[in-house]
UniProtKB/TrEMBL annotation, chains A, B:
<dbReference type="InterPro" id="IPR035929">
    <property type="entry name" value="CoaB-like_sf"/>
</dbReference>
<dbReference type="GO" id="GO:0004632">
    <property type="term" value="F:phosphopantothenate--cysteine ligase activity"/>
</dbReference>
<protein>
    <recommendedName>
        <fullName>Phosphopantothenate--cysteine ligase</fullName>
        <ecNumber>6.3.2.51</ecNumber>
    </recommendedName>
</protein>
<feature type="domain" description="DNA/pantothenate metabolism flavoprotein C-terminal">
    <location>
        <begin position="43"/>
        <end position="111"/>
    </location>
</feature>
<feature type="domain" description="DNA/pantothenate metabolism flavoprotein C-terminal">
    <location>
        <begin position="173"/>
        <end position="277"/>
    </location>
</feature>
<dbReference type="GO" id="GO:0015937">
    <property type="term" value="P:coenzyme A biosynthetic process"/>
</dbReference>
<dbReference type="InterPro" id="IPR007085">
    <property type="entry name" value="DNA/pantothenate-metab_flavo_C"/>
</dbReference>
<comment type="function">
    <text>Catalyzes the second step in the biosynthesis of coenzyme A from vitamin B5, where cysteine is conjugated to 4'-phosphopantothenate to form 4-phosphopantothenoylcysteine. Has a preference for ATP over CTP as a cosubstrate.</text>
</comment>
<dbReference type="Pfam" id="PF04127">
    <property type="entry name" value="DFP"/>
</dbReference>
<comment type="similarity">
    <text>Belongs to the PPC synthetase family.</text>
</comment>
Amino acid sequence: MAEPRVSTIDGKLAQEFAIPSHVEEVKDKMTDFAKRHAAEGRRVVVITSGGTKVPLESRTVRFLDNFSSGRRGASSAEYFIDAGYAVIFLHRHRSLYPYTRMLSNINMMDALQFSSAGAASNSGEVVVNQQVLPNITKVLKRYQEVKERRLLLPIEFSVLSEYLHLLRAAAQALSTIGSKAMFYLAAAVSDFYIPASEMPEHKIQSSNGPLQLRLNMVPKILSPLVKDWAPQAFVISFKLETDATILLEKAQRALDTYRHQAVVANVLDSRRGYVMVVTPETQAELILTEDDVKNDVEIEERIVSNLTSAHKKFIDQ
Amino acid sequence: MAEPRVSTIDGKLAQEFAIPSHVEEVKDKMTDFAKRHAAEGRRVVVITSGGTKVPLESRTVRFLDNFSSGRRGASSAEYFIDAGYAVIFLHRHRSLYPYTRMLSNINMMDALQFSSAGAASNSGEVVVNQQVLPNITKVLKRYQEVKERRLLLPIEFSVLSEYLHLLRAAAQALSTIGSKAMFYLAAAVSDFYIPASEMPEHKIQSSNGPLQLRLNMVPKILSPLVKDWAPQAFVISFKLETDATILLEKAQRALDTYRHQAVVANVLDSRRGYVMVVTPETQAELILTEDDVKNDVEIEERIVSNLTSAHKKFIDQ
């Protein structure tokens, strides 16, 4: 394959966004991971998940953030693995994590207890109360299996600059496996940032009066990702709006602009029960019924099922 | 006691910061908690902990945040309880929590395992691997004891407006126990906000170009807290700076302005090993030695020891 040409965004990334010191090491890890799994016949998906931090000061006390628990990315990772994929999980530090997410809504101390008397040989053991966590056996088994088979490679970011450089590294790493690679860009990435050159070093003093901030637009990384870094991959972006009336148009405009394969479009308030998968030719509405919700069906199962089928067709073409 | 006079900040709070629907209910809970413990001879401390979110849109996708894991507040709560206090823990949703904080740096799934064979009566049990969590027995015991004795009342906030209204409610609730009340204001509260009236409803569109933000200054709530809401309480504020050269002066200026009892002053980079406790008359430096660090001594133990002594003197006067 030809060396990807240096686009203006590559230059901007190098200039205005601090390069994480471990990026080359992570890239090697991702390359090995992708090659190994592709050799074993697996497709590989890079899932981005969680929000990005945008620092307002270089010794950061304050930052801009995006609403995102990482729920969609974490649950999707599980369904991709169930569908036979290997997953690179590029996620915000402390956002929800596959399998472990089941522990996120409780105080874990409330789910632990000392092992009951009677089992004298085990006295002093701390056990999980399975009335508090009824699915723990099933989920822990699956977690251990996935770990044992090394199907999940977790990579963390916190700030926007880490996200941007690590995603580029992931794209370059996965360019080695061509169309077997999928990008599922579910992270809530900031559209705005303060360039390093305009950032104060120290904590902004409130005694100086009201705060004026001027934020630049973050370069649209989807463009070089599709054109230059991983041109053969199957790429899905996400569109979250609060205003449903502009959603479809924005999804279609994104496909026109970036020429990737699909947009998963959703509205903040209804995102757990309704999404639209938009491609240049089709629009599929995925909806959870009341029965689905009762049976703990998650919409990510439907999204992943839709996209893995589309990816298969894409590869076969 | 006379009805607290309506200061301008009360008016501002009502006008510009949405009142949480459960604030009266929480206030009653806090009042009961404080009275019960004071009647049993305990002092009561309100600890605020974690950062505050400042939304940029009313259907919030983006927000400003403050760097804070909630570590200092969560560990201090444990030491206050050890010192005989009852604790109202007013903390940011998902920030570190007393006792449970020991689980925050691991993936909990990595600390769980299926109970070993041999103990047949326990088959199917999920147990904590005490090689991963060597202190779990001690900490779980203490957690259960504190819960049983109802020494810790957790109250959550996420956004700045919740924090402000809940802190006022806490101050009013604790005014019923006079000087037995302490406020330990460790939360990292935003100095800036966007008033509801100037906030766009929908997600800010990046296609409109660079983002200009103008943020107002958050009213200094310490002033009515000390003067009006809980005038007999022992009040400690915190000062975090990145620039060590302005720290002491800023602490002293705060004491001059607000007339409270103490400032815990610290610098971002060294905050885990060094703080200054500044009162109108004294400055005490608290420092962890290398040996302390080796022995897992936490600086919060020293801070709490210093302040509980000072609180005792304050009550006896």
